[in-house]
Amino acid sequence: MMRRPIRRGGFRGRDMGGDRMGGRDRFASERPREEYNEGSEQPASDGGEAAELHEHAHRSIVIPGEYIDDKKGRKLGDDVYDEGERVFAKVLGIPVVNENEMKIIPMSGVYIPNISDNVIGVITEVGISGWTVDINSPYIAFLPVADGVDEFVDTNRTDISRFFDVGDALSCKISKVTKNKTIRVSMRAMGARKLLGGSLMKVKPVKIPRIIGKGGSMINIIKQKTGCVIYVGKNGVVWLRGENKAEAIEAILTIERESHTSGLTERIARMLEGLPGAAQPAAPTAPAAAPAKAEPEPVAQEEKEEEAEDEEHVERPKPGWEPENFPQR
């Protein structure tokens, strides 16, 4: 029995049409600022990191091994460790210390998959029973046929590359992570789909919460101002398609570079002001006038006189004709 050849491929910030994205190295790390000032807009994530960062007026960046604070009965979160009661940082980042928890928001780092993460990956190999997917992580993911397509597929007779081929970009979900970091992804999730055309770019995975913004505020500004379709993966991969794609990419790189500064949302909005093809806000309309209250029609004088005459001709019962005066049968 002949084995089906395995095709290999990958991506590094390329255009999905085949052209490389030129320009400077967008993935090079920038030098972190020394201080984290009060009032700056903070990275937002599903866990509400932005709200936590506003709890302290002033915060320094810590380096690995630097002492943060005593534990004092608080829960230890991500990227910290303890020696007795003393708590230290594992990575370079911004400490978050409140009455319940101590953790670090890293300034850089690789993407470590977690179950239910929405990611963007690229098919690198087509196998017998599924696809190998590059999810911008030290660990390679696998997409089984059963989790990739809805219909029944006889893998002995079907070339599954007709569904997904090498180089195809997918928006998918992490469905399984084992102890030895075997990663499985699935297309059976809301928003999971094959991404046609467009361009891929990479940013630091730790900057994704800032690019999305609290409640999606930042990414929605970029979508509205540029008119682009944008998918953001938690693994640091962004897919874009639209007329103003270059401006959207520049805005995202600006957020990645200046995520620690204040007033970033307003600067991004000004940067993207007036682009052609962007969604324009509807012109305000004057409120509709309230309908006039209908006044009751006046009763005609003739109708009043007729009612008075009818009352005069009504026969009144005579005294002594009350029902109780009749004899009982």
Explain the overall architecture.
The chain has 329 residues and is of the alpha+beta class. The protein has a five-stranded mixed barrel with strand order 9-10-11-13-12. Among the domains are: 35-106, OB fold (Dihydrolipoamide Acetyltransferase, E2P) (Beta Barrel); 118-195, OB fold (Dihydrolipoamide Acetyltransferase, E2P), CATH 2.40.50; 199-271, Ribosomal Protein S8, Chain: A, domain 1 (2-Layer Sandwich). It is flat and about 65 Å long. The chain has seven helices and 17 strands. It has helices at residues 49-53, 145-148, 208-212, 217-226, 245-257, 264-271, 301-312, and strands at 35-36, 59-60, 67-70, 75-76, 80-83, 86-89, 93-97, 101-106, 118-126, 130-134, 141-144, 169-177, 183-186, 193-195, 199-202, 229-232, 237-241.
The helix tally amounts to: 7
| Mean pLDDT across residues | 77
User: Strand sequence of the main sheet, in spatial order?
Assistant: 9-10-11-13-12
Under the CATH scheme, the architecture of the domain at 118-195 is: Beta Barrel
**What is the class of the domain at 118-195 in the CATH system?**
Mainly Beta
List unreliable stretches of 5+ residues: 18-58, 282-286
| Dominant shape | flat
* Share in β-strands: 15-25%
In the CATH scheme, what's the topology name of the domain at 118-195?
OB fold (Dihydrolipoamide Acetyltransferase, E2P)
By oligomeric state, this entry counts as: single chain
